[in-house]
Amino acid sequence: MRKTLLLAALAALVFLAGCNTMHGFGRDVQKVGSEIEEAAGQ
Question: Angle 17-33-27 (CA atoms, 0-180°, nearest 5)?
Fold first, then answer.
């Protein structure tokens, strides 16, 4: 029981860290895309 709980908590931690990382990566890609659009428009 205790081992299962520990494994579930660890899996949740990895999942949440992964989501946060992907969210940050998505913002970075969006920013680069906006800068490219600005440069193309000038």
Answer: 20
pLDDT of 1-40, one tens digit each?
888 888 888 888 888 777 777 777 788 888 888 888 888 8
Residue 25 DSSP one-character state: H
Written as one string, the DSSP assignment of 3-23 is: HHHHHHHHHHHHHHHHHHHHH
Cα distances (Å, whole numbers) of residue 2 to 5, 6, 7, 14, 23: 5, 6, 9, 19, 32
The whole-model pTM stands at 0.51
Tokens matching residue 38: 């600005």
